[in-house]
Design goal:
The complex is a heterodimer of chains A (about 280) and B (about 400).
Chain A lengths: L7 E5 L3 H14 L4 E6 L2 H11 L3 E5 L7 H11 L12 E6 L6 H7 L2 E4 L4 H24 L6 H15 L17 E6 L2 E6 L3 E7 L2 E6 L3 E4 L3 H4 L8 E5 L2 E4 L3 E6 L5 E5 L2 E7 L11
Parallel strand pairs in A: 1-2, 1-3, 3-4, 4-5
Antiparallel strand pairs in A: 6-7, 8-9, 8-12, 9-10, 11-12, 13-14, 14-15
Chain B lengths: L17 H4 L4 H27 L3 H34 L11 H27 L11 H53 L2 H17 L1 H21 L5 E2 H19 L3 E6 L8 E2 L3 H14 L6 E10 L6 E8 L16 H14 L4 E6 L7 E8 L10
Parallel strand pairs in B: 2-4
Antiparallel strand pairs in B: 1-3, 4-5, 5-7, 6-7
Helix pairs in contact in B: 2-3, 3-4, 4-5, 6-7, 6-8, 7-8, 8-9, 9-10
Classes of the chains: A alpha/beta (about 280), B alpha+beta (about 400).
């Protein structure tokens, strides 16, 4: 972070009135803070954060597209790529109307959380904590190189735990009845039956999923998020938020000097990048 | 029988109460056994002193010896039997806390008989008083000794079994009560969805400074919505007109929050407006469509709510539909479809009020668009059922 510059922040909130209000309250409490982006949904939050590389992110939990937690996790995955990768990972503040069950967890993964309706006194406390955290990290961050990024590592850990844990009793994923065996792929006016066992990996592509087998490549009309619970978790591993690999198709995992892991596959010359979020899957026995 | 009638002196109180034993410490259990042995010995020695004129101290010693022997044997056997039963059932099965009456009787008979014999010998050795041992007694005397020694054991076993049952029944009653309260709370929470409530209040808080008139209108809608939700649980039916009015309040609140992402339309033919329906049933479906269909969608979508008649004459039914243009059922997490508490509640209410005459369905839209269609079919009700005055 450049000390001569004003601290920057992003606000992600799907309800316009509330987003605008948070901006005004922050302007009153912390005039030096510059709001560089307002995101109306989770995907926009991710894109804008990567573009502006802010110091702080205020993330609403329930947003259309990606939830605040999912956006934060995706941000942690992508942070060290592209321009601005050397900047420290933003300090996170989660904003929620009512997620009682997760408040404690939010506090672990973020600097703080704020409850809606936002009370100015409480928000002032949050600003205080954020200022402290920003000051604290200025000193040591000069010594530690950005690639060590202990903060990013910690954030990744916490977010992984948060996303893995059931968010709410109602949304706790039930063990899928039986894992999917066949993919029905529409091609023109026919439907191909592709055994799941032949798939080497799945890759998310917008609202579709690319299905890569040894000989062919298909496109199916389902999102990776919908597909994932239907797969056998023992056989198919998610290694990136947009990649799911059949575990026995992995020949070896290679770690480069920068600590990034890539997968070499049986039956394909392609190499797949493992994101930080899933690096813990590959640690050697 | 002029002897210190050790016959009476068995006291083997039952092994029992093992299920409680599970809840008490080993020390507490030992203390309780000692107390029971002591009390029974004291009572019997006193009886022998008063009724048969025996010397108190030797009688008491005899009684104590026999009690301790019977008690240890019966406890050991019943514990062993319980252990064997549990082993035989396997670790997954429900664990027995005592061997059950038939086996317990065997333990009592064998334990009392052996315990009596053993205790008698021990007593004779300690006190030097000759008493008729069970082995040397005639068949009649022996039988009566056995029967008599069984009595205290039976009584104590019976006492503890009953007490355990009583406690279990109390625990069950408390559990049932707590579950009923929890259910009530969940029902209220599902109707007064906290997320919706706090987000609405957050908007209201902003509007008060920004646009007081709109804030007031919003507050009025919130009040109407809260009043309807809280009273709905008391009335069993209200008119379609009222239901649609409540929906309008609710949708107006949601529109302030979601803006153009929520595009509702309501269709209630005038001739149906006085028909009766269970209160806030459609409301639950609308909330569901918004929460799982429209809120997760970045673009949002339309929300169409309609009431119409289907079929002719006696076969005619009221058809209520909620159609949304949201993300559709496939995108919802698999576990939340149709198992959510709100929808479960809708099914249950229809079932209790109409039985098989009503039905509820949640399906993907059939017109090829994304989104889902929730439909309720129910008998036509023209009048309010008589209510208790």
């Amino acid at each position: 972070m450049n000390t001569s510059q004003r601290p920057t922040a992003l606000i992600a909130e799907d309800e316009g009135l509330l987003a605008e209000n948070l901006r005004q309250e922050l302007a009153k409490l912390w005039p030096a803070l510059e709001i560089v982006a307002m995101a109306p949904h989770g995907q926009a939050a991710l894109d804008l954060a990567l573009r502006h590389r802010p110091d702080l992110c205020f993330l609403d939990i329930r947003m259309p597209g990606l939830s605040g937690l999912e956006a934060a996790a995706a941000l942690a995955e992508d942070w060290q790529e592209g321009p601005g990768a050397e900047r420290p990972f933003p300090l996170l503040v989660f904003v929620t109307a009512y997620d009682q069950y997760a408040l404690q967890a939010f506090e672990l993964a973020a600097v703080d959380y704020v409850l809606k309706p936002v009370q100015p006194e409480r928000l002032a406390q949050t600003c205080q904590r954020l200022k402290q955290a920003l000051n604290q990290r200025q000193a040591p961050s000069q010594a530690a190189s950005a690639s060590d990024a202990p903060e990013l590592q910690a954030a990744v850990e916490q977010l992984r735990r948060l996303l893995g844990a059931p968010q709410a009793p109602a949304s706790a994923a039930s063990p899928a009845a039986a894992p999917l065996r066949l993919l029905q792929v529409s091609v023109g006016n026919q439907i191909l039956m592709v055994p799941v066992d032949e798939v080497i990996y799945f890759e998310a592509a917008d609202k579709y999923v690319r299905v890569i087998t040894a000989s062919k490549e298909h496109l199916i009309r389902i999102s990776l998020r919908e597909l994932l619970p239907q797969l056998d978790g023992q056989r198919f591993w998610q290694v990136h938020r947009s990649l799911v690999v059949r575990s026995d198709a992995i020949a070896r995992a290679v770690r480069d000097e920068a600590g990034k892991i890539s997968l070499h596959l049986h039956g394909s010359a392609e190499k797949l990048a493992v994101s930080r979020m899933y690096a813990h899957l590959f640690k050697g026995m | 029988m002029k002897l210190p009638n050790p016959e009476n002196s068995f006291k083997a109180f039952g092994a029992l109460g093992s299920s409680e034993a599970a809840q008490i410490t080993y020390k507490q259990w030992l203390l309780r056994q000692a107390r029971i042995v002591l009390i029974i010995s004291l009572v019997l020695a006193t009886l022998m002193r008063v009724l048969a004129g025996q010397a108190f101290i030797p009688s008491f010693l005899f009684c104590l010896c026999i009690s301790i022997c019977c008690s240890s044997l019966i406890q050991t056997m019943s514990y062993g039997a319980t252990w064997l039963i549990n082993r035989w059932r396997g670790p997954e099965a429900e664990q027995a806390s005592w061997p059950g009456w038939p086996l317990m009787l065997v333990c009592l008979i064998v334990g009392s008989t052996l315990g009596y014999g053993l205790g008698n010998e021990l007593g004779r050795w300690l006190t030097g008083i000759e008493s008729v041992g069970i082995l040397r007694a005639g068949p009649r005397q022996g039988l009566s000794m056995v029967l008599m020694s069984l009595l205290p054991g039976l009584a104590v076993t019976y006492f503890f079994v009953n007490r355990t049952r009583l406690q279990a029944a109390q625990v069950q009653a408390q559990t049932a009560q707590r579950q009923a309260a929890e259910h009530q709370l969940r029902l209220l929470e599902s109707q007064l969805e906290p997320h919706m409530l706090f987000n609405t209040l957050a908007n209201l808080r902003v509007l008060i400074a920004l646009d007081p008139q709109r804030a007031q209108a919003m507050l009025d809608q919130l009040i109407a919505f809260l009043r309807a939700t809280l009273t709905a649980s008391r009335a069993s039916t209200h008119s379609l007109r009222e239901e649609f009015a409540r929906l309008q309040d609710y949708l107006a609140l949601m529109q302030i929050r979601m803006g153009a992402r929520l595009r509702p339309s309501l269709d209630l033919p005038a001739d149906l407006s006085e028909l009766q329906m269970p209160p806030l049933l459609l409301q639950a479906l609308v909330e569901n469509a918004i929460k799982h269909g429209l809120e997760p969608s970045i673009e949002g979508g339309e929300l169409h709510i309609s009431a119409r008649l289907q079929g002719q004459g006696d076969a005619a039914q009221l058809l209520l539909e909620v159609r949304d243009g949201g993300v559709g059922l496939a995108s919802r997490s698999p576990s939340s479809v149709g198992t959510g508490f709100g929808l479960h509640q809708v099914r249950e209410r229809l079932q209790t009020q109409f039985g098989p005459a009503a039905s509820f369905q949640l399906t993907p839209r059939s017109d090829g668009q994304s989104g889902s269609l929730a439909s309720i079919r129910m008998p036509i009700q023209t009048t309010t059922p008589a209510r208790p005055a």
